[in-house]
Design goal:
The structure is a single chain. By secondary structure, the protein is α+β, with helices and mostly antiparallel strands. It has one domain (19-49, 61-327): Oxidoreductase, molybdopterin-binding domain (Sulfite Oxidase, Chain A, domain 2). It has ten helices and 13 strands. It has helices at 19-33, 62-68, 86-91, 104-108, 133-137, 166-173, 194-197, 213-216, 269-273, 320-323, and strands at residues 72-76, 118-123, 129-132, 143-150, 155-165, 181-186, 208-212, 222-227, 230-231, 241-243, 256-262, 297-300, 310-312. The longest helix is centred in the N-terminal third of the chain and has 15 residues, at 19-33. The structure holds ligand MTE. Residues 1, 93-97, 149, 151, 186, 207, 236, 249-250, 252-255 line the site of ligand MTE. Ligand MTE binds next to loops.
Length: 336
Amino acid sequence: MLIKLPRSSDCKASEITPEHLYLSRRSLLGASLAGVAVSALPRIGSAEPSRYADVESGNTPGWFVEKLKDTNWQAVNVKGESITPFKDATHYNNFYEFGPDKGDPAANAGSLKTEPWSVVVDGEVGKPGRYALEDFIKPARMEERIYRLRCVEAWSMVIPWLGFPLSALLKQVEPGSNARYVRFETLQDPKSMPGQRSGFALIDWPYAEGLRLDEAMNPLAILAVGMYGRELANQNGAPLRLVVPWKYGFKSIKSIVRISLVAEQPGTTWQGLAPDEYGFYANVNPSVDHPRWTQARERRLPSGLFSPNVRDTLMFNGYADEVASLYTGLDLRKNY
Ligand code: MTE
């Protein structure tokens, strides 16, 4: 995000879905959301049928196939807004471990090895340890959460995530009485992550993020393991990423390998790089501008020069009813 980005109108032609394809996807999608018989829909690999059009199959792990059988579909939805085509959600990404350009993660993240995967839980917890991903997945019922994703760079998408509440994992590891914040860390593996080998990267790896414990316990905060009815694509943060829909996208840290319960507010990647630009809270707020991007409006992808799709940004990204009470008495201009 410190790297100079194209202006909102500069979306590359290759990133824009031709309108006839986009419209046919939308009609298919509308049909699937209206509850068309699942067997009539396209299949992804050996897993469950996809509920979404034009979804590329991945290397679906066995545990994911099992979880799909009992998934609570559309547990949370966004009414009246189209879901972003799969192609856009998986080819316009920020994942600096795989390079600075929007297309780099899709091009380079194939090298990420996501199985086996473990997560270290440490700090102020009753049950610290190295957990296999399955330890967290097994007890949880998978839910589909269709959320807006608003990047601080003023673009946005609507993505159907599959995952489980972060609060479920936190309860499982038993936060201690001194725990006030949760810190997350991404994998550091320069061998598979070319961005971490680059001499030009400004980031002090590993990428780190944090939430206040009460934010982390909010029912909207989830850990995602899938999207569009399939497992997460590597470029979207496989196999485990955070999704905090009322905050700018950079809070939603990808490919998590460490979760620490801590007493003090942890340092985070973007706040450490440019504290005047990126705050710890990073709540979506149309009335507090970033020095380089107005936050009042956003470009909903796909959006191009000749078919701009620009809309007003909503306070807390439209989730004020669920989260505004977390910030009572906090000056959101200072605590951006
Ligand atoms: N997590 C890691 N580890 N590295 C990153 O570069 N980028 C963040 C966030 N999580 C990032 C990350 C930013 S800036 C955004 S906007 C979202 O991921 C983008 O998520 P998406 O690519 O799935 O849309």
